[in-house]
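During the second half of the funding period, the structural biology subgroup turned its attention to how the target accommodates small molecules. The most pressing case was 4'-deoxy-4'-aminopyridoxal-5'-phosphate, which had performed well in the primary screen but for which no bound structure existed. We therefore specified the complex as follows and requested a full 3D prediction, including the ligand pose.
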Amino acid sequence: MTRIVNFSAGPATLPLEVLQQVQSELLDWHGSGMSVMEMSHRDKEFMSIAADAEKDLREVANIPANYKVLFLQGGATAQFSFIPMNLLRGKTGVDFVLTGDWGKKAAKEAARYAKVNVAATSEAEKFTHIPDRASWKLDPNAAYLHITSNETIHGVEFFAEPDAAGVPVVADMSSDILSRPLDVSKYGLIYAGAQKNIGPAGLTIVIVREDLIGQTLPNTPGIFDYKQMADNESMLNTPPCFAWYVSGLVFKWIKNNGGLAAVAERNAAKAAALYDYIDSQDFYRNPVKKENRSRMNVPFTLANPELDAEFLKGAKAAGLSGLKGHRSVGGMRASIYNAMTLDGVQQLLAYMKEFARTRG
Ligand code: PMP
């Protein structure tokens, strides 16, 4: 077996131990005589898998009892619409702080249902920082303030919960959920597609304060209604059972590896290794303001973009994949989610140093 070092932005590398457990249980889950893919979601076997996953997620992320945890479908993109449908609660406006393309996409969808106020944006500086809190023009009557806690393309991350002056904060945590301890009580709603730090694509996690749900816009389909989903334990219809199961194993893996505090330490060490090297020379460059640099996605450019193709080809030959930057920003991007090891990052660094030495 040869596994490559996978720096893909998502779907992304998963913990090897989790994949091995999936492999060992694939044909016969715990003596049930079938795989999780073949079980009825209403049978006691799957019900126990689902309940365990929620219990472990609540424990790992320290989710207060007055928050519902929903296991949904449609990706983070579907939530761009479901959130305004569910959370406007008779209000008409929503605030957005934009720090990258994902926030822009979320704002565009929200604009179908609400008046979007861009309270602050760093677009004029190509999304290379988070606008100063003092410059945000928040609307005190907004239904919520939306942020993207980690902009996957631009590599810009919030490290503290934003102060929204009493308005509920909604955070798209698709690419940094469970990467460090978080205070859920500071948010109205947290959402994330699973395919980066949680598990396989197809599952979307929503963590929502229960007093905010149950007041959907008229004509909201039942399947998009958080309250109906919560009342039915996310099984109003057939859920993405297999993705739910694998995600549950990832939550256990986090628990067995020191919880989020230990995860955060490992992530800080991986990111520091990359940024310290990038800042120490001129061949590679990262444009993001230091205090806003993502610990999950490290974009970098080569001084001479004509070498990009050669860099990627050599990386592939060295067993390092998924490094091509997003088409909108170009260059490279190393996505180093929870399951990326420090050893993987060191292999990338060794390759980058050698490439710079021979081409620089
Ligand atoms: N938000 C962020 C921050 C993302 O990184 C992504 C996917 N890369 C999305 C939203 C869209 O997620 P999905 O493909 O699950 O709809």
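Two results from this model are relevant to the next phase. The chain has a mean pLDDT of 97. DSSP finds nine helices and 14 strands in the chain.
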